[in-house]
Structures are given as C-alpha cells and as structure tokens.
Write a structure and sequence with these properties.
Helix content is 67%, strand content 0%. The chain is an all-alpha fold. The protein has one domain: Cytochrome Bc1 Complex, Chain D, domain 2, CATH 1.10.760.10.
C-alpha cells in the first residue's frame, strides 16, 4: 500500500512539474528552426538578417506580421509559412527566448 501511495505521489508530482518545464523549454526548442537560417545564436553570417539583439516586442510584432500576411518581401514566403504554424503563446515564447540572444 505504501508503495502504491509513493508511486501515485510521484506521478502527481511529475505531472504538475512537467507543464512548467515544457513551457520554459518551448521557446528554446521552437527557436531551433529560426537558428537554421538566422545563424547560430541568431547571428547570421550571410544575407539573412541576424535576430540576436532584437527586442522581444520587435520579434513578436514581426512574427505576427509574417503570420498574418502583413509583411511581404523576399523572406515572406519562408517566414509566412513558418509563422502560420505558431500560436500566440508560441510566438511569445519564441520572442522571449530569442530576445535573450545577444
């Protein structure tokens, strides 16, 4: 009986901690697709703009504009396709994480 209670308590604890941990890792995980084009650490070595050092507000606005089709240009094809797959919460997590890249 004690073992069953211990297992149940462990499962409950893991379930309550897992969503918080997943939320914190979200931006970092989502940013992997960004860093494929924008360079390691958000510092692009080529023509694609660097995103390191951009403010969280700028990043959010830019991603939402791409998602909503308000931003056009050469990059809009790829960025619009990527951004359309993000929820507001994912955009917030991405912007928050990328804004930490200096």
């Amino acid at each position: 009986m004690k073992r069953l209670l211990l297992v149940a308590a462990s499962i409950a604890l893991a379930a309550s901690v897992a969503p918080v941990h997943a939320q914190q890792a979200d931006g970092r995980l989502l940013a992997l697709s960004c860093l494929n084009c924008h360079g390691p650490g958000g510092k692009s070595p080529g023509e694609i703009p660097s995103i390191a050092g951009k403010s969280e507000d700028w990043l959010k606005t830019t991603l939402v504009d791409f998602r909503d089709g308000k931003r056009t240009g050469a990059a809009s094809t790829v960025m619009t396709r990527l951004a359309k797959g993000y929820t507001d919460a994912e955009i917030d997590a991405l912007a928050k994480y990328i804004a930490t890249l200096k």
